[in-house]
Write a structure and sequence with these properties.
By secondary structure, this protein is mainly beta. The protein contains two helices and 46 strands.
């Protein structure tokens, strides 16, 4: 299930059928109606501390209302994890303790709410009046969490860390947490963070109880994706001490930082001792900064859509109560060769700067293909600010040392969204239309690993990158092909499982092949195939497509061959 940046080449779904297909093949625990249980945990059980569970066992969390649940010493293996999954309906937890569901001293565990096809979140932590929803602590490691709904917590929705203390040997020399994967969950109305993953005290902390200064453990392997996080009191997603293999992507974060707690206000925060790539996230209408980075460098921030970051946080005060689209700042001296890369982000109406950059110990930092609209500090810098500030600094504000930026180009900086021809700004749809000046004017970042957009469509769509988070996918003309190319013949048409492509050419050519929906959305692309002089016959699989009308396109920089076909 591990997804790397390089492997995410194409969009995962094109309509409701393919969305369902993606869900079924991507979850570690497929949704099903009959779960084969090795053990059952009934609602009357509140704790299991000396289990007889073995690797590969499926433990069923039986449906119904229960109180808090404490599980200890669950030990699976990487190939055979212990699975905790709901059965018989939704399992609902109400708790008046400091946790709803807690794991201690456990390893290689999957927690899944995917036990029933017709229930999206089969485990509901409905209310935790004195603490966090899901707690993965006490030297626990190697966890996957999916399809949980967590709401109404006093503190955080999910906590995954073990802070050093005077009892457990959980400091950096004695413990490392591995492989924390959290996806397809719905977390909302939390008192503090939506997720609190890893320690925020990477540089160490003094423990007065045992008169010692200790460093927290690091995390090697974090992936947080496809989650909805809404109405958090503090940060939406916080990750700290995640030094290796950290990716946060494809999350939707709405209205973070409602409590207006200073230093706890962001949609996503990468804390000290972390090196996380942050991409394909939508962060909408938060009171805090969209993305706050205090990481160690070597990071990419790309394809993020950030709208109205901090805009309703003391809107009348642009000086002292600043919030940014993205704020990257150092909290300790990064390695000399560390770099920060900001590619293809769309940032709309941030309260202060679009991107504020304060990482003077770093080098080789790049800002390319970003689309930043209407930063709130523009007029302040223009009319009231220091003579050292220009109004244009409000788009990308390099706070201390201009020499650390090695590349900043192909960005669009504008005061109004109107000139960008977005699809529907009233409904937060910032996809580009074909009239946008961002289309086909981006820099090709394929060599930097940017090969998809915020919707996981291929980037570039044809030959040129677009600017901003989305890549225009409309192929023109698709909807009105009145004169298809006679050289290209598809048969059988209509077809069910395969098409045979017959194309006659007058010379050797390399062509790209695209399957496109009738409304212009890219489904599949095969790049740079050689077609011979004379007759070419190729078999094209279409069995995976839903029944509908499609377009097949063969093209290169000089030629384009188009034909419609019907999938039976």
């Amino acid at each position: 299930m591990q997804k790397t940046i390089k492997r995410r080449r194409q969009r995962r779904s094109i309509d409701s059928f393919l969305v369902l297909l993606f869900l079924l093949i991507s979850f570690s625990i497929p949704a099903q109606t009959t779960i084969q249980c090795d053990y059952e945990i009934t609602p009357a059980i509140s704790a299991i501390t000396n289990p007889i569970f073995k690797p590969g066992d499926t433990i069923c969390l039986m449906a119904g209302l229960r109180g808090p649940l404490y599980l200890k010493n669950l030990i699976g293996t990487s190939g055979n994890p212990i699975v905790i999954i709901n059965k018989g309906g939704q399992s609902i937890i109400d708790s008046d303790l400091s946790y709803g569901l807690k794991f201690a001293d456990s390893k290689n565990v999957v927690v899944s709410g995917g036990g029933e096809r017709n229930i999206e979140y089969g485990i509901l932590l409905r209310q935790v009046t004195n603490g966090s929803g899901l707690d993965i602590s006490n030297r626990s490691s190697d966890f996957e969490v999916e399809r949980l709904e967590i709401s109404n917590t006093k503190t955080s929705g999910i906590v995954a860390k073990t802070e050093p203390n005077c009892i457990y040997l959980a400091d950096r020399n004695n413990f490392t947490m591995f492989n924390i994967k959290i996806h397809n969950n719905y977390i909302h109305h939390t008192g503090n963070e939506g997720m609190y993953i890893g320690s925020s005290f990477f540089l160490g902390q003094y423990l007065s109880a045992c008169d010692s200064f200790q460093f927290p453990h690091i995390i090697d392997g974090v992936e947080i994706y496809n989650n909805r996080v809404e109405f958090t009191g503090w940060d939406g997603i916080q990750v700290g001490s995640a030094l290796y293999n950290c990716n946060i992507h494809d999350n939707y974060i709405y209205k973070d930082s409602r409590a207006e707690q200073s230093y706890q206000m962001s949609g996503i925060i990468i804390n000290t001792g972390s090196s996380c790539n942050v991409y394909n996230n939508r962060i909408i209408d938060g009171k805090g900064t969209g993305i706050l980075n205090q990481g160690s460098g070597g990071q990419k921030f790309f394809n993020n859509l950030i709208v109205n970051a901090g805009k309703d946080y003391y809107p009348e005060d642009q000086v002292l109560t600043q919030q940014f689209g993205i704020f990257s700042k150092y909290t300790y001296n990064q390695p000399p060769n560390s770099s920060f890369q900001f590619y293809n982000n769309t940032i709309i109406n941030p309260k202060s700067d679009g991107i504020r950059f304060w990482n003077s110990p770093s080098e080789n930092n790049r800002f390319i293909n970003n689309l930043i609209i209407n930063p709130g500090a523009y007029n302040y810098y223009k009319y009231l600010g220091s003579v050292n500030f220009q109004a244009s600094d409000s788009y990308i504000h390099n706070y201390l040392d201009a020499s650390v930026i090695s590349a900043s180009f192909n960005n669009i900086f504008e005061r109004s969204t109107k000139a960008q021809f977005f699809a529907d700004t009233l409904n937060y749809d910032y996809h580009l239309t074909k009239y946008s000046p961002a289309v086909n004017f981006g820099y090709d970042l394929s060599s930097y690993g940017i090969t998809f957009d915020i919707d996981n469509y291929s980037r570039p769509f044809e030959y040129y990158f677009d600017i901003g988070a989305s890549e225009l996918q409309i192929l023109t003309p698709v909807n009105s092909i009145s004169n298809p190319n006679e050289q290209l013949i598809l048969s059988p048409n209509p077809g069910a499982e395969f098409l045979y492509l017959n194309l006659s050419l007058d010379k050797f050519q390399y062509l790209d092949l695209m399957l496109v929906s009738i409304d212009g959305k890219l489904i599949k692309i095969i790049k740079n195939e050689l077609y011979q002089k004379g007759e070419n016959i190729k078999q094209i699989s279409i069995g995976f497509l839903p029944k509908a009308e499609y377009v097949l396109v063969l093209y290169n920089q000089t030629n384009r061959f188009i034909q419609k076909f019907q999938k039976l």
